[in-house]
Amino acid sequence: MDFKDLVQARYSCRAYHDRPVEEEKILAVLEAARAAPTAANRQPFRLVVVTDPHIRGSMKGAYNRGWFYTAPVILAAVGAPGENWVRSDGKNYNDVDVAIVMDHVTLQAVELGLATCWIADFDPDATRDILHIPDHMEPVALSPLGYPADSPRPKRRKPLEQLVIRDHF
Ligand SMILES: Cc1cc2nc3c(=O)[nH]c(=O)nc-3n(C[C@H](O)[C@H](O)[C@H](O)COP(=O)(O)O)c2cc1C
Fold first, then answer.
1. Angle between helices 94-111 and 23-34 (to 10 degrees)
2. Pocket residue to mutate for ligand 1, from 102, 110, 119, 155, most atoms within 8 A of Cβ
3. pTM higher than 0.90 for the full model?
4. pLDDT attached to residue 77
5. How many Cβ atoms are within 10 Å of 51's Cβ, its own excluded?
6. Which domain covers residue 131, as residue numbers?
C-alpha cells in the first residue's frame, strides 16, 4: 500500500475480531514505534503491550467500552516527562513525542491489515493502577490493536482552505 492509500485507510476502529495478533506483527508495530522521531532523540516513552486476558479485562476500569477491553491487544503509550527535551521557554514536548510514536503505530498497523483507535478519554489513575505505571511516568494514549470487524466510514475533514495558511495569517 503506498503512503497516500495508507493514511486514507487508517481509521478509528471500534470493533475487533477475537483472532490473536501474530507476534511478528506486534513486533513490526513496535519497531515502527521505535523508528519514530523524538525531540533531541530522547525517546522519552514506553509502550505497554497488554495481551494477558486478565489484564485486558481489567482495562475495563480504564475505558469502559467492550470493543476496547476485549480487543486481542491493548497498547498503552506512556510518556516519561523527566526524560524528554524541554524548550528554553519551558514548553514540554513529551506529548508531541508520544503522539508521533502512536502515529507510527497506527499507520504500521494498517499496512499489516490491523486496526487501532486512539483513546484519550480514559481514566489515568485506573490505568496507572492496572498497568503498574511508575509515578514519574504518564499514560498519554491507549489503543486496541487487532483485526478489524467493522468498516471505515468516509472521512469527514475540513477543506484545506480552512486548515492551511500560505505565507502568513
Ligand atoms: C488524541 C486523540 C484522542 C482520541 N480519543 C478517543 C477516545 O477517547 N475515544 C474514541 O472512541 N476515539 C478517540 N479518538 C478518535 C477520534 O475520534 C478520531 O480519530 C476522529 O474522529 C477521526 O476519525 P478517524 O480516526 O476514523 O479518521 C481520538 C483521536 C485522537 C487523535
1. 140
2. 119
3. yes
4. 98
5. 14
6. 3-163
Q: What are phi and psi of 113, to 5 degrees?
A: 80, 15
* pLDDT beneath 50: ranges in the chain: none
Q: Are 58 and 137 in contact (CB under 8 A)?
A: no
C-alpha 42 – ligand 1 centre gap (Å): 27
Helix (H) or strand (E) holding 124: helix 124-131
- CATH code of the domain in which 150 resides: 3.40.109.10
SS (H, E, C) 63-87: CCCHHHHCCCEEEEEEECCCCCCEC
The answer to whether position 168 is within a domain reads no
Q: Considering the domain boundaries, does residue 169 fall inside one?
A: no
Q: What are phi and psi of 54, to 5 degrees?
A: -65, -45
Atom of ligand 1 nearest to the CA of 153: 26
CB 120 near ligand 1, within 6 Å: yes
**Counted domains in the chain:** 1
